Amino acid sequence: MKILVVGNGGREHALAWKLLQSQQIKQVICIPGNGGTASLPGCQNLPLPVDDFEGIERCALVHNVSLIVVGPELPLAQGITDYLQSKNLKIFGPTQAGAQIESSKHWAKTLMQSAGVPTPDFEVFTDLAAAVAYVKQQGAPIVVKADSLAAGKGVTVASTVDQAIVAVESLFKNGFSTVVVEECLSGQEVSVLALTDGLTVRPLLPAQDHKRIGEGDTGENTGGMGAYAPAPIVTSALKERIEQEILQPTVDALRKRGIDYRGVLYAGLMITPKGDLMVLEFNCRFGDPETQAILPLLETPLEELLLACTEQRLEQLPEIKWKSAAATCVVAAAGGYPGAYQKGQVITGIEQAEKLGVQVFQAGTQLKQQQLVTDGGRVLGVTATGESFDQALNSAYAALNCIEFDGMYYRRDIGHRLT
Ligand code: AMP
Ligand code: GLY
Predict the structure, then answer these.
(1) Residues enclosing ligand 2, CB less than 6 A?
(2) What is the pTM assigned to this prediction?
(3) For the domain with range 2-95, which CATH number is right: 3.40.1440.10, 3.30.420.40, 3.40.50.20, 3.40.50.1110?
(4) Nearest protein Cα to ligand 2, atom 4
(5) Is the pLDDT of residue 419 over 80?
(6) 287 CA distance to ligand 2 centroid (A)?
(7) CA within 20 to 30 Å of 345's CA: 29, 324, 364, 404, which one?
(8) Pairing, β 179-183 against β 142-146
């Protein structure tokens, strides 16, 4: 079987790596892929943009692929699934209508309300003055969100009214037409990525991400600086509740709206100090870096699960099998990220790092004349597994010591909530 993976992050490297572990998979093609997928045995990169649907279609036909797996949200929100399905190709990922669960916060909030899924109180604004008046009336802390996709830069958790007003003003100034203002919650965040075929839901192991750039969860939000799985805070009782109170009602509500959602439903949850569950956001795709921590623990062949979703027969599959181990991924970023950063810095030490038994998933990297150089903000993720989180973290950090590039930055406190 050949599989086509769309995207170029650490998530896509991890997907390609996991797929190629299966006896059934002969080749993975990555569009456009990165330095990691370029040197992964059995994997081939094709330099096409992720929104070149016709190019992706041609590639799928020429290579006779059995399945197309979409990593990032943008092509899903642009309708890649609708397009490729109309060409009779098999694709893992929701349609444009389903992807609204991530591409419009307002749409997702309304869906949650109709499904009785708990989510923070909110108001939606298309007018600056009304939004500012509401922020003043509510007081701080308060959360301001762009309604539409904003490449991870659309959310401000404001600790003062002034900060919230600046955030609202800057969203409208930057061309966002709709802004969501939301109650601010405290607690622990967890990411639950579930596979669904539009009827049945199968959650993967729960993970915790580290969104902020700075140690102690300080500074700006990023795409995610590290993750671990399975998150111990999600007890089996909580897992059951997440499935029954959040995931299944959401898929049922999508179906009621005529949306046949086949792909990943990723719930970004807050567990409040009182033990309440709230959905902060849904994503329509695999999380990154969460996927880099989850997939190394997966024992069931990944393609069996993905195909069962696209063919709507998830219910017939046996339970997903997992290694009984802890996994952690530490992300190394380019200096300056999530602000401005340099590209083209030479990366060394990955081979030595992997000799220590870890997996280095590459994200913003490129093979340039046989030399691996940086090509993005989050450059790579070092994933280690172990019998305990301590073991896994020690391995990941020991491996990071081998890797170098100019300006390399990583958080040294990944897993701090575990103690
Ligand atoms: P989102 O893209 O909606 O997940 O927001 C990005 C990040 O902002 C989340 O991972 C949280 O850390 C934070 N956040 C979002 N909504 C809230 C909220 N209502 N209360 C507190 N923090 C939030
Ligand atoms: N790690 C957060 C995300 O994938 O959205």
Answers:
(1) 209, 223-224, 283, 287-288, 290
(2) 0.97
(3) 3.40.50.20
(4) 287
(5) no
(6) 4
(7) 29
(8) antiparallel
